[in-house]
Input
Amino acid sequence: MKLTGVELRRISLPLVSPFRTSFGTETTRDALLVRVVSTEAEGWGECVAMTGPLYSSEYVDAAADVLRRFFAPALAAVERLSAVEVGPALAKFHGHRMAKAALETAVLDAELRAEGRPLARELGAVHDRVPCGVSVGIMDSLGELLDAVGGYLDEGYLRIKLKIQPGWDIAPVQAVRERFGDVLLQVDANTAYSVSDARHLSLLDPFGLLLIEQPLDEEDVLGHAELARQIKTPICLDESITSARAAAAAITLGACSIINVKPGRVGGYLEARRIHDVCVAHGIPVWCGGMLETGLGRAANIALAALPGFALPGDTSASSRYYQTDITTPFTLQNGHLPVPTAAGIGVDPLPAELAAVTTSTEWLAL
Ligand code: NPG
Output
């Protein structure tokens, strides 16, 4: 396969309600879609970088820039391109994993479409549906939080994740436990604490949480290992795990006993599968994270979440959790599960009218 062009398409979708985390509040999803055109087929990838460098150092304008100036030209020079060649062709460029992931996913999608093979089967999926959790943002009041959690449980979500930060941690967990009993419950701090908060975080121990996600700075792997010795709630890492090598190191150091896998954060689905494999070999459960993906990114995440090591429900929510109108046929919850796409490639296509309605710009890179 030879690339003939790459389209960078910016879209803007309003969220059904504001999504507040310790690093900011999102009201709209301004995303970058990558469409590759090759001699064999076309393929899509969704870049999960946000508007600002708040979750990680990446942000969407930088992703577009590095794709345009460095990554697309580097792939254009590869005569016989396939998805496994993308990583090596881009290896000399440091970082920018979300941009790399979007491009690699688009190439993988094109390759699989050309061969008529679904992504789930390619990755080694063993399930035809995946159990779904939902991530619940920080709210203005406990009453508002309980209403939101109650609504999600009524919809059938099988696990609740509460975003926490100093000042919004113990009380919301206690309130949800008191109201909803032994529902599967976990919390996500997005790096909002330091190791000196260990005694405070140990106040979460009695609530039987599945895990606490990324309490400390992304670079503080040793701090997580220290915290793990001081609290009972299992520690799960997200931001710190940027590669299979980082996963192996964190596990060896005792910094986590569970890992959140986000393909965008680690450079793509092939590295995500390597992380899965490392974790399975170490007996570490993984689950699939989410970054407000449209149906395009969601479809690929669901394929990944169907691998055998994905032992916990993921942030693989239905389209309606975030969007009134998705750019693909919406994913709808069935008894708390989403079906794994079975068509070739990522298994879904953007709906032309819906895609056009949310597109804010397109840029064609002829190669
Ligand atoms: O379900 O798509 C989803 C979102 C789940 O909470 C979620 N994502 O820190 O994991 C996170 C968080 C996030 C959202 C991170 C947006 C970065 C951007």
